[in-house]
């Protein structure tokens, strides 16, 4: 990853909205965020996560979802000050997608979806959650 064009400790806060689950190597991204975020600064993440252990191999879009234990382990340089499950917001998004033309079968059924892969709604691992996490970057002496 090319470093951000910002000096060290340039920001009081960083927001990751629905991108953390997409990073192939979150350690690289978190290292760069840690470089530009001042000690004591705030990191806010809202994204999909895996409510149950074990990935659903049928849905490519869920391959990189992590459970909360994995997310907390990645955030070793941060103190988590808030976590909330906001899955109701995810439900509203899905309902909006259905309202705008996606069929429930395409999203959750056993029918092939637009990418030609099977969904896994009947598998608990195929039901992601949506979370909001607020963390503080630890001070250098912590």
Cα-to-Cα separation, first versus last residue: 28 Å
* Oligomer designation: single chain
Tell the overall outline: elongated
Arrangement of strands in the largest sheet:
1-2-4-3
Total helical segments: 4
Main pleated-sheet profile: 4 strands, mixed
Please give the share of residues in helix: 25-40%
Share of β-strand residues? 25-35%
Which secondary-structure class do the elements indicate?
alpha+beta
Mean pLDDT: 80
The residue ranges in which pLDDT falls below 50 over 5 or more consecutive positions are none
Order of helices and strands: EHEHEHHE
Count of DSSP E strands?
Answer: 4
Radius of gyration: 17 Å
Describe this structure in words.
It is a single chain. The chain is built from four helices and four strands; from the N terminus they run βαβαβααβ. The chain is α+β, with helices and mostly antiparallel strands and 142 residues long. It has a four-stranded mixed β-sheet. Strand 1 (11-17), helix 1 and strand 2 form a beta-alpha-beta unit. The mean pLDDT is 80.
Which properties best describe this structure?
142 residues, alpha+beta, elongated, 4 strands, 25% helix, 4 helices
